[in-house]
Amino acid sequence: MPDRRLPAGLRAPRWWALLTLGLALGFAAVTVTPLPGAMMPPIVVAWLGLALVLRWGAPRPAAPPVRVWPWSLLPLALWGVYVYLADSFGVVDLGAVFFHLQAGIEEHGGGGRLIAAGLYSLAMLPVLAAFTWLVRTDRRWRLVERVLALALLATNPLLFGLGQRGAALVTEDGAWLDRRYVPPAIRQAPAEPPNLLVLYLESLERTYADRERFGDAYAPLAELGRRGVVVEGMRQLDNTGWTMAGMIASQCGTPLMPAGLLHDSQFEPLERVVPGVDCLGDLLAARGYRLSYLGGASTRFAGKGRFYADHGFHRVRGRETLAPRLDDPDYLNSWGLYDDSLYDFALGEIRALEARGDPWAVVTLSLGTHPPAGFPARTCRDRQGAFDGVDILYAVECAARLARGLIERLAAEGLLEDTLVVLASDHLSMRVSAWEALTEGPRANTFMLLGNGLAPRRLEREASTLDVLPTVLEAMGFAIERHRAGLGVSLLADEPTLVERHGLEAINARLREETALQRRLWEGLGHLPRPEPRALNPAP
């Protein structure tokens, strides 16, 4: 029975259906475009106003509903998937989706994402029901609905990306990047090569250094930067925008192009990660370095453990091995260890390596600023006050302060006297509470070098994380071929980077067509023919 307490207009399904569709349209618009959230109400009002003027759902002459199923239901559902991904991550990277499906997503800490996915799925049901009602009720919508279905399919970025990857199989030149790839190699080493400490700061991009937008959240890192080399303009290329891709880009000098059909067992996790190229760990292990990786999250997630074990690292530790060693076994977040715990373990690891007398390299990966809100450590809460569970700037300040604290503790113990320290964000942040401020202008990754006799300075270069590998090698005193390794160029040299020569958009366009570099990365995983041999030093 209809509710007689409501006005007659609201008892009819028409305005409930139109309001549901308007809310869905408004939310999608502010999620997948740069429009601010405040634009959602005007979009809903404009939709309802147009519906009122055109009498959507109540045409003249009125006719009984026709029981049809709209062609647009599946395209609408696919758009719902894209909006969910955009709302969760900000920038939707198909490469990340494909890679994680193949590398393995067990022991992830994103339980909240799964809950959100379920809620999104439930929210799509009234949207699909409302659209079905509108098409059945209004003949005008039935006439245009098939065209709308095609438009929804053609404009969905998910399907557009799949189409581009398919087109890469028949492109005239699928080896543009591969021709510019220089196999990483050390030509000459100093008599006493330095140790290396790399601190990957999860999603802690340099964009936060803008005090007008973000206050003093980045200040602890900015203070560190005054002691070393700070690189500005570290842009993010496609296929480098998630953790494994960011680490591979900076350690191997190449974007992480997912294995795709090159994977020899499509329904099993990858057994090796980029086995076809040499990376930082391979080069240092061949020079007698002892290498250790410590991360707060599980090494089983996304193939991290396999990557480090396969590329020269002697000890690979993550949540599964570090958590049992905590003094407080309950001091964990959904992903793993808090940064203060991780850095305590890193300090112990460096002490042990230093005692051996061999050159060492330690790589850590923090969790403190993992989207959407970060995981501020207990020690920061004692200093910064209560955390509201939303403000990413609170987590940024905490993570920056703890990273600086580790470096100061190591320096106080004399453990950095012959050591190059690298601080770098693994990738740009995904959607967080400061998203609108982050995306209102150009963004850049954190990259700074401390110690080993480097004179403090700022380098204003248009670069990418591909340039990290050759820069680190030269900062350590190693001589490399023409200042290059992989697709990167040392930022300590005068050679132009790939980004300076060609620009981000041109490189990203080439990435969507590239097949030869993909085969190089995953050589041995499939049975496709290998790319033709290339000259050692092609022009960048």
UniProtKB/TrEMBL annotation:
Keyword field contains Transmembrane helix: yes
Domain of life according to the entry: Bacteria
InterPro entries: Alkaline_phosphatase_core_sf, OpgB/LTA_synthase_biosynth, Sulfatase_N
Compartment(s) of residence: Cell membrane
This protein's UniProt keywords: Cell membrane, Membrane, Transmembrane, Transmembrane helix
The keyword Calcium is annotated on this UniProt entry: no
Main subcellular location: membrane
Domain Sulfatase N-terminal intervals: 267-477
Transmembrane segments: 38-56, 68-85, 114-135, 147-163
Gene3D superfamilies: Alkaline Phosphatase, subunit A
Entries under CDD domains matching the protein: LTA_synthase
Pfam families the record matches: Sulfatase
Membrane topology qualifier: Multi-pass membrane protein
PANTHER family, per database record: LIPOTEICHOIC ACID SYNTHASE (PTHR47371), PHOSPHOGLYCEROL TRANSFERASE I (PTHR47371:SF3)
Protein name: Sulfatase-like hydrolase/transferase
